[in-house]
UniProtKB/TrEMBL annotation:
The keyword Translocase does not apply. InterPro entries: Aminoglycoside_PTrfase, Kinase-like_dom_sf. One of its GO terms (molecular function) is transferase activity. This is Aminoglycoside phosphotransferase family protein. Keywords: Transferase. It comes from the Bacteria. Residues 69-229 form the Aminoglycoside phosphotransferase domain.
């Protein structure tokens, strides 16, 4: 769970980490999860603080440090540690604005190149959840998080889709275990665009190990969600086709199915039986189309 930050509390977080800040302000439409600020040296930064989920942040930060060493376009961490009963961090504020309407082909190509850098992680003794490359399989085939159960309780339509989804993902052999870095929450809003180019990939709070194909599937589902809303899909070409091709190259058909199933039950089950109806309707529309993309 992410604490709803105010500028006043963000200042306390930064002070506790030994960083002096000025010009603190909420980060736009981010719903109070992030605060923008400037250090005494004039460096634009972002302040975050997590409560009970903060135990995973040291592992995610360790992974992001490895990725930075590979040239991955994410933010540098200036300070982090336990503070105010949770875990806080002060990180570089990258240039650009979130690609809320979806990255165009040029930026998507850059994102795919960045995801390629996530291949073959080096285990660094991070927290268990951040270091278990079998996490996705445990969720999909063993319901470790209880998302299958929660998804079945959302609605009769969701329960029916779960039956089809479970049969579909088990109709092929399980994919080979991969130990890539995985963002686990890659979305249009975590992709920053500046002057038509990729400015950076942010929100690495869930960065862990597994099959990086999941990140591409998450983006494919977002593009398909634009069609659900009759919103324009950035071109040229179909970005979902581009992402499907990349996922199949990385993990084959079994990897595609596992990633689609993971993303599906996370979306259906995360909010529990009382999740937002509009999000449920979009998921019920998108998921079957993702299943039908690869026979």
């Amino acid at each position: 769970m992410v604490y709803r930050l105010t500028p006043e509390r963000a200042r306390l977080v930064a002070d506790g980490l030994g960083v002096r800040l000025s010009g603190l302000s909420p980060a736009g439409a981010d719903k109070g999860r992030t605060i923008f600020a400037v250090t005494d040296a004039g460096q634009p930064v972002v302040v975050k603080w997590l409560d009970r989920w903060g135990q995973w942040l040291p592992g995610a930060i360790g992974h992001s440090t490895q990725l930075l060493g590979r040239g991955y376009p994410t933010a540098r961490i200036f300070a982090h540690g336990p503070v105010l009963g949770g875990y806080g961090l002060v990180q570089e504020r990258l240039p650009g604005r979130p690609a809320v309407t979806g990255p165009d082909k040029a930026v998507l190509d850059e994102v795919c190149a960045a995801v390629a850098l996530q291949s073959a992680a080096l285990h660094n003794g991070a927290a268990p959840r951040c270091g278990d490359p079998g996490w996705m399989a445990k969720v999909v085939y063993g319901d470790t998080m209880g998302w299958w159960r929660a998804a079945r309780e959302r609605s009769p339509e969701s329960a029916e889709l779960c039956v089809r989804l479970a049969e579909w993902v088990r109709a092929v052999p399980r994919p080979e275990l991969r130990a890539d870095f995985v963002h686990f929450d890659l979305s249009f809003t975590s992709i920053l665009v500046r002057r038509g180019r990729l400015g950076g990939i942010v929100d690495i709070d869930n960065l862990a190990l597994g099959d990086r194909a999941l990140d591409l599937v998450c983006l494919a589902c977002q593009y398909e969600g634009l069609r659900f809303r009759d919103a324009p899909v950035p071109g040229p070409g179909d970005p979902v086709d581009r992402l499907v091709e990349e996922v199949l190259r990385i993990s084959g058909r079994p990897g595609w199915r596992q990633a689609v199933a993971y993303n599906a039950i996370a979306r259906l089950g995360w909010g529990g039986p009382h999740g937002r109806r509009d999000q449920l309707e979009r998921s019920l529309w998108v998921i079957p189309r993702m299943m039908d993309r690869v026979i």
